[in-house]
Every structure is written in C-alpha cells, then in structure tokens.
Amino acid sequence: MTTVSLAARLAGPLFFPVTAFHPDGSLHPDAYRAHVRAGIEAGAGAVFACCGTGEFHALTPQEFQTCVALAVEEAAGRVPVVAGTGYGIALALDFARSAEAAGADGLLALPPYLVRAEQHGLLAHYTRLAAATSLDLIVYQRDNVTLTPDTAVALARTPGITGIKDGVGDLGLLQRVISAVRTEAPGEEFRYFNGLPTAELTQPAYRALGVDLYSSAVFCFAPEIAGAFHTALATGDHATADRLLDGFYRPLVELRDRGKGYAVSLVKAGVRLRGLDVGEVRAPLTEPAPAHLTELAALIERGLILVGH
C-alpha cells in the first residue's frame, strides 16, 4: 500500500483554527470541536491545529494534545491535520511526539523560542526534529528564522521535511530558495506556503513565484469570503480577486495593524461575531478595542456582500 505524503495532500484553503476557551480561561473542547467541524464542512483543505492563530504559545502540553486529538477526530481522514510544535529542541520533540500520538498527519515547526541561531544550528534543530517522528515536517520561517538557499536545499534533502512556510515576505530571497532547491535537489517533493499575516493580500505576488498554498486566518471567521478569493485566484478571476482585495482584505490589514497581537485576537473576535463563542485570547494578548470590533463587524458584512452572501 502506497502512503500519500503530506505535501501531496495539501491543497485548497489552509485552515488555522483558533483555540476555544471558556469565560474562566480554561479550554472549551466542545466549542473547539464545533469550530474545526465548521471549517472542514466549509471546504478547508487542511487543518493546522494549535499553531500561531491557535495560540500555541499559551497552551499547556495537555491542552495541546487534547486539541490535536479533537481536530483529528473531526477531520476523520477527510483532510490532513497538521499540528504546531516549537520552543527549544527538547520541548519541540515532546510536542511532536504528542501530536503523533494524537493522530496528526504532520507538523508545522514554529521558530525556536527567543534565540537567534546560525544557519547550521537551525539545520541541526529541524533535522533532529524530523528524525524523531514519522510525521512530515513543514518549517516556518519568520521572525528569528530566515533560511538561506543553501539551508533550504539541505532541508529539502532531509527525510521527513516536506516544505517551508514563509512568514518573512522577502520575495527575492524566496525566489532564490525555490531556484536553489529546484536546481540542487531535483525530484524532491517540497512545497512552499505563503505564511504572512492575512496572506491573501500578498498571495497574487506569491503565485507569480509558483507558490499556490497559503494560510488563511479569514477562513476562521468568514470562509465564504476566503473561499471565494481562493477560487478567484485559482481560476484567474482577477476582477473578483481585486474586488475583494480592495473592498475587504486591504481594509482588514489596515485594521489588523492598529493593535498589537491583532493577527490573533481580531481573528478570534471575528469567530465570535459570526456566532460561535470561542472565548477571548489568553494574556499577554489582549482583546481588540470596542471601536475596532465595530469596524470588524462592518468589514465582515461588506465582504459577505461582495461575495453575494
């Protein structure tokens, strides 16, 4: 029996669910399950559980495993479930093994906590992580992790490492990475993802490099809008894509940039505005200002009108 790789299974809008909490701050499994189920039913191509939007940094190891297991149960094999892992190598290994035990299909390796490392140190970190689990690994470059083309080639040649999610946004560097891997590691099944916040805004530029996968925080609270935009890009419907960029995504990014941590808390607020109480973000993140919530509600309404809902 041939096992289909994670890289081959990834397609469509990539769904990064928020993690649901009760009013007292404790995990809310039922709301989380409902959130994941709704995303899958709305057409998510994959579920990335307990990653940045899911407040990985704020979860206990037990909460992490619970959420990954719930996502796996809800997916029921229909779409792959990829779990976050991070911190230093010791904890990253623990989270990776926990995700594997919970039934995840892959891992998204968040940047190592706090430190800035040399390229050979980063390579050692990800190589060791990939060797410790049977799950395919996607490396997330952002903040303190920026990979050179040589390091990317070494990662592509490493068994178990299947792609890079880019949160740096240096398209010149990414083009060099893609070219180097294509030249120096031909035949390797290696995928690239646009991982910038509100990735839809920059996705037309990423598509020009051949990068068709991207994370969609908007899918968490407005899958109708996210799905319409994804379809417009895939079919070359530039008029619809531009209409959504101009009328929804650009204003959303401008709103997002008005508060620290809004890349997470504004998304979670959007889920609540659409009728599912997933609770508030955990400290040190803070809730959006009331005026910003009013703007978000109006933006969602405008976006839904733009896609005919």
Structure commentary:
It is a single chain. With 309 residues, this protein is α/β, with parallel strands linked by helices. The protein is globular, with a radius of gyration of 18 Å. Helices cover 49% and strands 11% of the residues.
Throw out a few tags for this protein.
49% helix, 8-stranded parallel beta barrel, Aldolase_TIM, lyase, DapA-like, 8 strands, 13 helices, EC 4.2.1.41, alpha/beta, Probable 5-dehydro-4-deoxyglucarate dehydratase, 309 residues
Summarize the structure.
This protein has 13 helices and eight strands. It has 309 residues and is an alpha/beta fold.
Give the fraction of residues assigned to helices: 40-55%
Distance between the termini: 44 Å
How do the helices and strands follow one another from N- to C-terminus? HEHEHEHEHEHEHEHEHHHHH
Beta strand %: 5-15%
In terms of quaternary structure, what is this?
A: single chain
- Number of beta strands: 8
Q: Quick check: average pLDDT?
A: 96
Give the number of helices.
Answer: 13
Radius of gyration over C-alpha positions, nearest whole angstrom: 18 Å
Q: List low-confidence stretches.
A: none
Strand order of the largest sheet: 1-2-3-4-5-6-7-8
Q: What structural class results from the helix and strand content?
A: alpha/beta
Largest sheet: 8 strands, parallel, barrel
Overall geometry: globular
